[in-house]
Amino acid sequence: MNDDKCKLTAYNRRDFYKISLITKGCSTLLYANRDIEISRPALVFTNPLIPYSWDAKEEDMVYDGHFCVFSEDFLHTGARMESLQDSTLFKADGNPVYLLDEEQLKYLKSIFERMQTEMDGDYVYKYELIRNYVNVIIHEAVKMQPAVAYFNPTNAASRITNLFLTLLEKQFPVDSPQDPLKLKKAGDYAERLSVHVNHLNAAIQEVTGKSTTTIINEAIIAEAKSLLLHTDWSVAEIAFSLGFEYASYFNNFFKKHTGYTPMKIRNNSLPV
């Protein structure tokens, strides 16, 4: 959380959601396959698996506000809630921006300031209190009318392709055998970007000359080689981390695309 002037940039951690309170400045939120103009105070919800960025209206304009970042596990501890990925606040085809009137801005600003005060304090249950504040912000947004005015970019194929490649890049490197890839097929990416899989495939083929599946497979093979050469994970652990249910499936996939078995790469350090 931060109550200083914020630079409006994407938060790169894959496991953190972000809620931003924009109190000053005009900008455009480039979110999934939409551009949303923000010209007054707003509450903005962004998902770590949905590519987004900010486009400032004026380079020398002052931007001010607050933000908080949190994991889904933190927010759901001790509570039965829907997945944040399924919430309209965070979905690619949902409404991530809520424009605020003066009263709403004052109230939400006070909540962010209270969270900052608790973070700086030593109250033993401060994280439980902060969790409650975050839930209050989410519920306040649900009660509001979202800012639904948005426009699609002019070069849709390039924009969708860039979104896909950004989302693909966010899947790597794989950090742990216990945290496997969440997006493994073209359909997974299409669903996350809220476009039909045929539309995604056509856009990527047009821009890159390759199929969506080919690009995904190339990324998985590159990550597999890195894990084989630079970790002590077993082949089974590597297979699971890359989304394969069984090591035999991974072995067949790897050999089909490289001509070698995974152990051949690991043991002989063949050129990669």
UniProtKB/TrEMBL annotation:
Q: Does the keyword DNA-binding apply?
A: yes
Residue limits of the HTH araC/xylS-type domain?
188-268
> Which PROSITE patterns would you find in this protein's record?
HTH_ARAC_FAMILY_2
What SUPFAM superfamilies does the entry give? Homeodomain-like
Keywords, sorted A to Z? DNA-binding, Transcription, Transcription regulation
Q: Which organism is it from?
A: Pedobacter roseus
| Gene Ontology molecular function: any one | sequence-specific DNA binding
Instruction: Enumerate the Gene3D superfamilies for this protein.
Output: Homeodomain-like (1.10.10.60)
Q: Tell me what this protein is called.
A: AraC family transcriptional regulator
Looking at the record's lineage, which domain of life comes first? Answer: Bacteria
